[in-house]
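Why show two proteins at once? Because comparison is the fastest way to build intuition. When a single record is shown, students tend to memorize it. When two are placed side by side, the eye starts asking what differs. So, the first record is below.
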Amino acid sequence: MRVVLCDDNRLLCEALADVLRSRGHDVVAIAVTATAGVAAVAAQRPDTCVLDLRFPGNPDGISAAKSIKDQFPETRILILSGAGENTAWSQAIQIGVEGFLRKDQNVAQIADALDVIADGGAVFDPTLSRRPGTPATEPRHDTRELLTPREEEVLRRIVAGQTTQQMAAEMHVATSTLRSYIKNVLAKLGAHSRLQAAAIGSRRPSRRPARSARQDPPFLPAPCEYSPSDV
């Protein structure tokens, strides 16, 4: 796996880079601004990119993630965030990032998440979708509107009580791919189990809101310097 790390905390990047290299991965660049991170992805075309959500000044991690997904959709993205980032969590899912985790986890946990993402999975921390003051046990039902058509189908099958193997066979996907869909459904619903997801799904009709065209122009990186990790 070829990785670009982008965080204004250089020490965190270096620590994570050490763990990833020890697992046989190639950290091809480290950037300390969102603009430099987009430039590094453009230059290196990595398999995955780790983006901090907040940077001093503009742009932020969401803008950078949108730019990367617009230009290089094959690059899988993990965003690191503080707690209670409800709006950013929803925006990240809409953009199509593959992961959204708390930044206070240790570097080994972040590396584990990257391994899952590199294998085609998705890793979302549902605690980051809660508004301040929302109890940890209260599922975020409103994120249902963010389910993709494929995820809606998975949820319907969960409600129907199908097993992972049954769903994979009938949807003509690999079992590992189906498990990724299930993880996304649980994360977006804020559910901790299939049983809880089934309860949410059985109480709410399927809905897919119309998406308006993007009004903001894509973020285009200005010329900048980033530091390839082998320098």
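Second record. Ask yourself what differs from the first in the token line.
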Amino acid sequence: MDRAGDRGARALLRLGFYRGLRLATLLLARLLYRVRVVGALPSGPCVVAANHESVLDPPLLALAARRPLRFLAKEELWRYRPGAWLMDALGGVPVKRGREGHVAVDRAAELLAQGESVAIFPQGTVRGGVWTRGAARLALMTGAPLVPVRIVGSARALSRDRIGFPRIRIVVGEPIRVDRARPTVAAARRLTERLAATVDRIT
């Protein structure tokens, strides 16, 4: 099999695995958390940005999309073989800390140009905190719409020292239209502030 055929076979395998995992997540989430998705993601490529309060958030966010999302995730998740295999199978994009993280943003821009959608948790960790500028920078670089999403209830379902079975909602906000522009620090900061405020207002 040539390289193109090998890449195609891997892509089909990844798609099948992703869909199977998404279906299993949907069934479990409906059973345990009576999960409900409000709204829908655009049909075209977009940058999806959500709040992050639980390790459950990535699979929950996938439920808001009818087609696979390509998640940007911290490089540490690739440290051990099982995690690396899972992240590769799901089409994850590893993000290094510091300036080398720009490589992941460039890769995400390539995926958007190919018609895929990219998902980012700008807060970085489940502890929350300051929203980083990666999602805004990516939207500015590509002109892709920035879609705010709020996941409600995941922290009460699973977080540090806490396990519960609350109702969970994944609420998709109106896309923020972004004109393609030079992703300066100032421009990315302004867009990030707008994004964070929009997610906070979603109920």
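One difference worth noting in the second protein: The CA atoms of residues 154 and 167 lie 9 Å apart.
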